[in-house]
Specification:
Layout (H helix, E strand, L loop, with lengths): L1 H14 L5 E2 L7 H8 L16 H9 L9 E3 L6 E3 L14 H13 L4 E5 L1 H6 L9 H22 L3 E5 L9 H17 L4 E5 L8 H5 L5 E5 L4 H11 L6 E7 L9 H11 L8 E5 L20 H6 L3 H16 L6 H18 L8
Parallel strand pairs: 1-4, 4-5, 5-6, 6-7, 7-8, 8-9
Antiparallel strand pairs: 2-3
Helix pairs in contact: 4-6, 6-7, 10-12
């Protein structure tokens, strides 16, 4: 796992990714990682406190002879699944600062000043079970000091950016949840005022965009692939604050096909009508965990050439991100050849998919 983590980070470093996320490599599921970081372990697994051992961690995920596994359910509208945290009689406590450990590893081993990621408190509680709705705010009050402690320790370590994922914001949340969200991030801003927080959403367009973009955070990450129409309409309607960074998710983190790069550049150009280029970060629409690692092994597969050339997995998406970042900020004329090649491949695959080819097997 150590080698895998460093390998994933090094790939991003070599390609030239500017904001490299750390703490996104899991032994099983990142929601389970969050639960165990807060010591939220069902009693049937006989957890004794402290750092949760891997034996207990995997027992929660897979079950044992004496203790059934925790429930697994769908992660929003994807085919990815997560282990549902059980809050029955749990008293959250910080067992270890996993984002901090991941940051230290990346910096010490590879010299990467990473961007630690953590699942946000509103999303975490909304995805958990084992409590009555009337207990929600009490549990949230128990969790928030732990989040503040994590952020404090990250800031003291020299971390400049932290990504807090709140994908629950692309669902229909209540007015009470919006109020909770505002209280949560007001607390974070006042407790750790000099830490840059990127509030990240994905999978769809956000609800309550006006309230979300005015939260006291430094950046907002939005999906401009699956949530393109909704998020763009919201920005065109309510604008975007001049003191914030926009993380524009234009590369599909869930799809396996080459991105139409010119089309993505056009989207970025549209966004610059509302956000100055220096406040716009090119990123994937969501984590790349939803796609295979690389297309290199496909070279020997018995696939039509048009299909092979159209595939783009995680490693190749990193290259697309780097290309778009350079094309967006530099002279695009020098990159015309690559853009034209991408368009040619996309058009060839479109014809292939529609049956307009002569070598169908």
């Amino acid at each position: 796992m150590h080698d895998i983590r460093l390998n994933h980070l090094q790939k991003q470093q070599e390609v030239g990714i500017d904001f490299i996320v750390v703490n996104d490599c899991s032994y099983y599921y990142h929601v389970l990682d969050t639960a165990t970081m807060f010591g939220i372990v069902p009693k049937r697994f006989q957890y004794k406190g402290g750092i949760v051992p891997l034996s207990v961690y995997y027992s929660m995920a897979r079950g044992t002879v004496d203790a059934p596994a925790s429930e697994m359910t769908k992660w929003f509208n994807t085919n990815y699944h997560y282990i549902v945290p059980e809050l029955n009689e749990a008293t959250p406590t910080l067992t270890e600062n996993k984002p901090l450990l991941a940051y230290r590893e990346a910096k010490e081993k590879l010299g990467i000043d990473g961007k630690p990621v953590i699942l946000g408190p509103l999303t975490f509680l909304k995805l958990s079970k084992g409590y009555d709705k009337t207990e929600f705010d009490d549990i949230l009050r128990q969790l928030l000091p732990l989040y503040v402690k994590i952020l404090h320790e990250l800031k003291n370590e020299g971390v400049s950016w932290v990504q807090i994922d709140e994908p629950i914001l692309v669902t229909k949340i209540s007015a009470a949840d919006v109020h909770r969200l505002q209280a949560i991030y007001k607390l974070f801003a006042s407790s750790v005022p000099n830490l840059n927080i990127m509030l990240q959403t994905y999978f769809e367009s956000v609800e309550h965009c006006r309230e979300i973009i005015t939260l006291p955070v430094k950046g907002i990450g939005l999906d401009f692939v699956h949530g393109y129409v909704g998020n763009l309409t919201s920005i065109q309607t309510v604008g975007f604050p001049e003191d914030k960074i926009l993380g524009a998710g234009v590369i599909d983190g869930r799809g396996i096909w080459k991105a139409p790069l010119q089309e993505k550049l056009d989207i970025l150009d549209v966004l610059t009508k509302h956000v100055t280029p220096d406040r716009l970060i090119v990123q994937s629409s969501c984590s790349l965990l939803h796609v295979p690692v690389t297309t290199k092994q496909e070279a020997e597969a018995e696939l039509e050439l048009e299909l092979k050339h159209a595939l783009t997995f995680a490693d190749e998406k990193l290259e697309e991100l780097a290309f778009l970042t350079n094309a967006f900020s530099e002279n695009r004329g020098a990159l015309t050849k690559t853009l034209n090649e991408h368009e040619r491949i996309s058009e060839t695959f479109r014809l292939f998919r529609n049956g307009n080819h002569s070598n169908t097997s």
